[in-house]
């Protein structure tokens, strides 16, 4: 970010703390679209919009007690990132994505009545999952197919949440490679 933009943000923050609606409006117009686009990289558009609007509302409601120690831009993007992770971890985004997938699957794949093709895809997915180490497979299946959160998996497996996160990230990386020739499965798995 350039110095002029940072100075503008500092002025916006100073005026915002004093209740300036114009300063809030300036922040909103400057950051709403970029924040929404950024959030859209992690969650669906509807969730991205909710996250950004909620953050900006929070900014207005807490304007008198704000204690931002970084640039406003860094603070807002970091906040959106964290809120996206919370949304994903809560399973809300996953459930919505799954609903859209199952609604559109016949259109994407064109196999509404062709059970052979569906069986082939399921077999390919099972084969890729079976090739994972047991702990990775268990973590990814519990998270992606049973909707358990990282914390729930950690409690069930007797490991830390970071260990679950590591296992799932490694499993996803491996599945991306194994399923690279099957775009529909990559989309289904959110890879």
What is the string of SSEs from the N terminus onward?
HHHHHHHHHH
Low-confidence segments, given as residue ranges, are: 108-114
Provide the helix percentage. Answer: over 70%
Please identify the structural class as seen in this structure: mainly alpha
CATH topology descriptor of the largest domain: Rna Polymerase Sigma Factor, Chain: A
Major sheet attributes? none
Percentage of residues in DSSP E strands: under 5%
- Count of individual beta strands: 0
Instruction: Calculate Rg over CA atoms.
Output: 21 Å
CATH class of the largest domain: Mainly Alpha
Number of helices: 10
Please outline the helices and strands.
Elements: H1 3-17, H2 21-39, H3 45-61, H4 72-90, H5 92-109, H6 115-130, H7 134-144, H8 150-157, H9 161-178, H10 183-188
Helix pairs in contact: 1-2, 2-3, 2-4, 3-4, 7-9, 8-9
How would you summarize this macromolecular structure in one to three sentences?
Helix content is 77%, strand content 0%. It is mainly alpha-helical. It has 2 domains: 3-90, Rna Polymerase Sigma Factor, Chain: A; 108-188, Orthogonal Bundle (Arc Repressor Mutant, subunit A), CATH 1.10.10.10.
Write up this protein.
The chain has 191 residues and is mainly alpha-helical. It folds into two domains: 3-90, RNA polymerase sigma factor, region 2, helix turn helix motif (Rna Polymerase Sigma Factor, Chain: A); 108-188, Orthogonal Bundle (Arc Repressor Mutant, subunit A), CATH 1.10.10. The chain contains ten helices and no strands. It has helices at 3-17, 21-39, 45-61, 72-90, 92-109, 115-130, 134-144, 150-157, 161-178, 183-188. Helix 2 (21-39) runs antiparallel to helix 3, helix 3 packs across helix 4 (72-90) and helix 7 (134-144) packs across helix 9 (161-178). The model is unreliable at 108-114 (pLDDT under 50).
């Amino acid at each position: 970010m350039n110095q002029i933009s940072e100075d503008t943000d500092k002025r916006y923050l100073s005026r915002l703390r004093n209740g300036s609606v114009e300063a809030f409006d300036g922040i909103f117009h400057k950051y709403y679209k970029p924040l929404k686009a950024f959030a859209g990289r992690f969650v669906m558009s509807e969730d991205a919009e909710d996250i950004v609007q909620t953050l900006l509302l929070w900014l207005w409601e807490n304007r008198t007690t704000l204690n931002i120690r970084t640039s406003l831009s860094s603070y807002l993007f970091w906040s959106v990132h964290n809120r996206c992770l919370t949304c994903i971890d809560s399973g809300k985004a996953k459930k919505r994505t799954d609903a859209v997938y199952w609604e559109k699957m016949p259109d994407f794949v064109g196999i509404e009545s062709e059970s052979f093709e569906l069986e082939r895809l399921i077999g390919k997915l099972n084969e890729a999952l079976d090739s994972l180490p047991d702990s990775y497979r268990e973590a990814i299946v519990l998270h992606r197919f049973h909707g358990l959160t990282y914390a729930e998996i950690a409690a069930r497996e007797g490991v830390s949440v970071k260990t679950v996160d590591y296992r799932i990230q490694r499993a996803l990386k491996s599945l991306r490679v194994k399923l690279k020739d099957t775009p529909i499965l990559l989309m289904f798995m959110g890879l």
